[in-house]
Amino acid sequence: MPDQKQINFTIVPDDAALGNQPRTYANFCAVAHTPFDFTLSFCEVMPLSERDVRQAEAEGVVRAPVRVRLVTPVNFIPQLIAALQEHWRVFSETYGSGTPPPQGFGPVH
After folding, report:
1. Span 74-91, pLDDT tens digits
2. Is 43 a member of any domain?
């Protein structure tokens, strides 16, 4: 077997590839999985009207439009969790985990 060389590199997002696509806002994420992948369905939950509340009480369901559905392989999930935990740690040290987020950060669910 030939000698294998290790190549170190960093992956960075290429924002230019997005072009003029706007960011997508979501304040709720539903998670599902199969033995092969995880599906993250990001939704936007708007404040409920009185009619919506009555309907939710009757049906036991609030429907929220899916803004983005992301399917990722199982072996990517531990890296995603680690990245979220690290960013949450930095966020908590910066803003305090027991305080509400600063203005402009949107709802937290």
Report:
1. 999 999 999 999 999 999
2. yes
pTM comes to 0.70
Within a domain: 2: no
| DSSP type of residue 52 | H
Residue 60: phi and psi, rounded to 5, are 75, 20
Q: What's the structural domain count of the chain?
A: 1
28-33 sheet: strands from edge to edge: 28-33, 37-43, 66-73
Domain that holds residue 51: 24-95
Largest CA distance in the chain: 69
CA distance 99 to 109: 14
